[in-house]
Automatic annotation (TrEMBL):
The keyword Transcription applies. The modification 4-aspartylphosphate is found at residue 57. SUPFAM superfamilies: C-terminal effector domain of the bipartite response regulators, CheY-like. It comes from the Bacteria. The keyword Repressor does not apply. Signal peptide: none annotated. Gene3D superfamilies: 3.40.50.2300. It comes from Kribbella deserti. InterPro entries: CheY-like_superfamily, NreC/VraR/RcsB-like_REC, RNA_pol_sigma-70_dom, Sig_transdc_resp-reg_C-effctor, Sig_transdc_resp-reg_receiver, Tscrpt_reg_LuxR_C, WalR-like. PANTHER family: TRANSCRIPTIONAL REGULATORY PROTEIN NARL-RELATED (PTHR43214:SF24), TWO-COMPONENT RESPONSE REGULATOR (PTHR43214). Residues 6-122 form the Response regulatory domain. Keywords: DNA-binding, Phosphoprotein, Transcription, Transcription regulation. This is Sigma-70 family RNA polymerase sigma factor. The lineage of its organism: Bacteria, Bacillati, Actinomycetota, Actinomycetes, Propionibacteriales.
Length: 220
């Protein structure tokens, strides 16, 4: 049996917190172990339960999601933080990523995208909301690996045809589940391809795949 991915849901709006908890719990491989109404409660819940993933709001009373993320990542490195945001919070999201968050999704993301996002960050990878990446790219551009465009292009040439398809879809912000449906392959196969692509390109996570694709867009 596959181990359950244990989740803490943190949002100061009670109805949304309950809705997110139900949305997560409906998946057989996901389990909500605690809910928090602010960042301080989230930090305490993580210390108590040692979850795999925290779904974290940003603007909250007492302790905001950015500082809560920083404290969680520092104290409990095994726990990954997935930020839930809206279109107008790009600067906050960037700060949260700098604090150690593993990515972000929009609060109105489709249910399966959110669940798959949890699975992605639990596996050690990162995820970006495909609808809200454009303004993030310029802010995150300095985080690109210190490589020339030609080196990156040569690395792309070493991808198989299928790996190139997966790279393009990852760079568009699609989740593993969405890529699997697009290519009519299993989610496990997608996961293997993503790992191979990141290794061949020397990239640490999916976020950098988005940035590389943006950087080389005019040369591909």
């Amino acid at each position: 049996m596959t181990d359950l991915i244990r989740v803490v849901v943190c949002d100061d709006e009670e109805l949304l917190r309950e809705a997110l908890s139900r949305l997560v719990d409906v998946a057989p491989d996901l389990e909500v172990v605690a809910a928090a109404a602010d960042g301080r409660q989230a930090v305490e819940a993580v210390a108590l339960h040692k979850p795999d993933v925290v779904l974290m709001d940003i603007r909250m009373p007492r302790l905001d999601g950015i500082e809560a993320t920083r404290q969680i990542v520092r104290a409990t490195p095994v726990t990954r933080v997935l930020i839930l945001t809206t279109y107008d919070l790009d600067s906050y999201v960037y700060a949260a990523l700098q604090a150690g968050a593993s990515g972000f999704l929009l609060k109105d993301a489709p249910s399966e995208r959110l669940r798959d996002g949890i699975r992605i960050v639990a596996s050690g990878n990162s995820v970006l909301a495909p609808e809200a990446t454009s303004r993030m790219i310029e802010a995150l551009r300095p985080e690109l690996p210190d490589e020339t465009d030609q080196v990156l292009l040569r690395a792309l040439d070493h991808l198989t045809e299928r790996e190139r398809e997966v790279f393009d879809l990852v760079a568009e912000g699609l989740s593993n589940q969405e890529i699997a449906e697009r290519l009519v392959i299993s989610r496990y196969t997608v996961k293997v391809h993503v790992s191979n692509v990141l290794a061949k390109l020397g990239l640490p996570d999916r976020i950098h795949a988005v940035l590389v694709r943006s950087r080389l867009r005019g040369q591909l």
